[in-house]
Amino acid sequence: MLGIETSCDDTAAAVVRGDGKILSQVVSSQEDLLARYGGVSPKMAEEAHALAIDQVVQKALDDANVSESDLCAVAVTVGPGLSLCLRVGVHKARKITKAFRLPIVGVHHMEAHALVSRTA
Q1: What region holds the Gcp-like domain (predicted)?
Q2: For the chain, what is the largest distance between any 2 Cα atoms, rounded to a whole number of angstroms?
């Protein structure tokens, strides 16, 4: 499964096997924008996500040695978060799931944080 996260200021993607083993995880930080503008600017964050999302997802797939056709589903953060930023991740997830006829799984950002303890 491919996971995509764009709820705020980081563009992230990971590939996880069915047994929970993380095969890859890639994060593109917007640290430079945060420093330059003194915090998160939703429009700037959206633009940074749009510039990074394709490369981040492809690197996650490459690092896991899989292609989109190997995936069983795509999970994507649907909230809470900045709507402009969330839209970038959802758009990318929809593009992949439509092209490869995969299910899409909407993920609640805070619930995902809580569930991480189960994988440790």
Answers
A1: 21-118
A2: 41
Tokens (6 digits) for 99: 């092209």
Beta 2-5 vs 10-16: how paired, if at all?
antiparallel
Structure confidence at residue 3 (pLDDT): 98
Structurally, the chain folds into a number of domains equal to 1
Q: For residue 64, give the CATH number of its domain.
A: 3.30.420.40
Residue 109 pLDDT class (50, 70, 90 cuts): confident
pLDDT(27) > 70: yes
Q: Is the pLDDT of residue 120 over 90?
A: no
* Residue 57 DSSP symbol: H
Beta-bridged to residue 107, according to DSSP, are: 77
- Output the six-digit token pair for 74: 């795509």
Segments in the chain forming alpha helices (H): 31-37, 42-64, 83-100, 109-119
Query: Containing domain of residue 51, as a range?
Result: 2-119
